[in-house]
Structures are given as C-alpha cells and as structure tokens.
C-alpha cells in the first residue's frame, strides 16, 4: 500500500542511536546530512553521510588509497528499492534492491513511522544493542502518478 503522506523528498534533521543503557549517540555526528525519497510507484531511495568528509588524494575513486576508502565507507550509507506502507501497524518496509552495504541487498528493513507537522520520524526496535531514530523534514512533495 502506498500512503500519499510519504510521497516526496525528505531531508535528514537528526539520526540518533539509543543504546540499551539509555545513552544517545549520533553515528555520523550531530551535523549528518541525508535525503530519503518515496515516489508514488512504490520506489524509494536513501543516502546519509557524515558532513565535511575529507577529500581523497586522487580524483579517480578507483585509485583511492585503502585508508581513504575505509573512511569514506564508514561515513556513508545508501540503499534503494521498493517500499510498502502498513498503516495499521505504523510500519514502512524498505525492500532493498541495492545498497552500499552489500549484506542488506535482498533484505527488508522495517521501520516504525510517525508524521508530525512537516516531519517523518522513522525508528527501529532494538537491533542488537541499538535503537535507531531518524527525523526527516519534507522538502518536496511529488504529485501522485496517474494510474
């Protein structure tokens, strides 16, 4: 099911991880940047990265040094695929088709959702010792496609 409230582009406001002991962490810093898009055809994509990541020495990403690649990988996550909204359980399921983290390809990522004013709040239950919460602000609304 597609929910028209999801459709559009959203900008990351905050990404926090709550630990089992109640402490809060910002995995990519308090100034992380990101964007998530949902379209009316059931497609979605998301990218999140650390702000102000260091530049690499080479202009060719395939010629980057291993330490540069490791730092870049640890400061960026992206995936895309299909999505389904389950309004009765307040869940959205991201069906991952491609990802910067290869282990997620073919998996479903389940998020609880809540709309508050112009914000979309996505959260997880505890995954191991971590509970994720991402706050997004709508920046673009896309019209529903014609059937």
Give a brief outline of the structure:
The protein has 147 residues and is mainly beta.
First-last Cα distance: 14 Å
The proportion of residues in beta strands is: over 45%
Biggest sheet strand line-up: 1-3-4-5-6-7-8-9
CATH topology: Lipocalin
Pfam families: Lipocalin_5 (PF13924)
Protein name: Lipocalin-like domain-containing protein
Domain Lipocalin-like: 7-131
Organism: Algoriphagus halophilus
Question: What does this protein structure show overall?
Answer:
This protein is mostly beta strands. The chain has one domain: Lipocalin, CATH 2.40.128. The protein contains one helix and nine strands. It has one helix at residues 66-74; strands spanning 8-19, 24-25, 33-38, 43-49, 76-86, 91-99, 108-116, 119-123, 130-140. The chain has an eight-stranded antiparallel barrel. The model has no long low-confidence stretch (mean pLDDT 93).
């Amino acid at each position: 099911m597609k929910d028209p409230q999801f459709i559009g582009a959203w900008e990351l406001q905050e990404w926090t991880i709550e630990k089992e002991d109640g402490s809060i962490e910002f995995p990519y810093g308090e100034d992380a940047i990101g964007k998530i898009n949902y379209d009316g055809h059931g497609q979605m994509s998301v990218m999140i990265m650390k702000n102000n990541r260091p530049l690499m020495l080479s202009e060719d990403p395939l010629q980057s040094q291993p330490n540069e690649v490791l730092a870049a990988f640890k400061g960026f996550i992206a995936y895309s695929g299909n999505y389904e909204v389950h309004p009765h359980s307040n869940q959205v399921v991201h069906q991952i088709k491609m990802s910067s983290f290869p282990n997620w390809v073919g998996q479903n990522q389940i998020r609880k959702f809540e709309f508050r004013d112009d914000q979309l709040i996505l959260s997880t239950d505890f995954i191991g010792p971590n509970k994720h919460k991402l706050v997004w602000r709508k920046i673009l609304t896309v019209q529903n496609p014609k059937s």
